Amino acid sequence: MTAVTTAHSAPAERRAPGVRAAVTGLGVVAPGGIGVRSWWETTLRGELAIAPVTRFDATGYPATLAGEVADFVDEDHVPAKLLPQTDRVTRLSLAAAAEALGDACLDPQSLPDYAMGVVTANSTGGFEFGQRELQALWSKDRRHVSAYQSFAWFYAANSGQISIRHGLRGPSGVVVSEQAGGLDAVAQARRRLRTGVHAVLTGGFDSALCPWGWTAQLAAGGMSTRGDAERAYLPFDADASGHVAGEGGALLVLENADAARARGAAVLGTVEGCAATFDPAPGAGAPRLLAAARLALADAQVDPADVDVVFADAAGERDADRAEAAALAELFGPYGVAVTAPKSLTGRLGSGGSALDLAAALCALRDQVIPPTAGAVRVADDCPVDLVTGAPRPARLRHALVLARGRGGFNAATVVRGAR
Question: 234 with 289, same domain?
Fold first, then answer.
């Protein structure tokens, strides 16, 4: 298995004739719900899943709130033999993988060898596992460091463990592009389908809610230090003060649409367009989120007028929010399309955040309803976006555009269409 980073300057590729990427299964483990149904119901109710950190004592840290996956019992989702060799993020992803495959009614063992692979995104690795082994090293000695530290911390651990657990021997890899990673992984999986692979399990997960991970996230900047969960993460709000970190994500079964229908699979939606760009160095040019959105629409062969809802990156930082709002206004016109940021309910989940937004977009297309942004958000005058807040908004939805920006200049955009 190889670690893969996406090319963030190449133009979007054209769809090969007869190959469409269908989503036939979803798996979610996120703040607000374990499993798609539980999480989606919580999301539509607009229930805030941000609260004081409980996974470690955060009293002495500037930021004390997080979006945690509550009530996740490792033993209920992971075989006992895997517990000593896996970090929490891998356990969360294993649970989502099992749900996604079950939702797709797809047994990988029924497929030919090498017909199904796995491509996941991860931006922090197994921070908690690594911290525990480092503590053992400095408090005891090297004999007390687990041999599993050699791989449990690695970004590719999720893909590797999922591959082994389900016998996914086809083309596989991992993408490292922070918040953009979930979308980049799906784009990579879509390219695999075009080479003749039957199906790919794809998406993103992150979890770094431990002192070492928390310190790293604080050092990177952008985290809100407010203690009021209702006011800590307010994307597009004039009072925005940064984001709240979280854990979790989503995995999708991406399948050749013709093959999926041939086996009688239910198709939730299709991935119609993917694109990625990379921002220039600070001061060397404009951010390229708008370019990514345009490339994704071109790849999907749809116009801006065909997009009915945008799932925004929603950084929660004033400059970044203004930049995203300006990009949306240029593409759709001021207040020209419904915009939502359900991640305001969960916090930003690293690579898992954009994958979860993609899952939300597919559920929204299925149910013809737009989930709300956290009810406390009041849109700033300099952010001309039609932000859905307070309650779900019923709407006729054909296409959704999902946007994501990763720390360091990554931009990604994906266009999905509901099942026809």
Answer: no
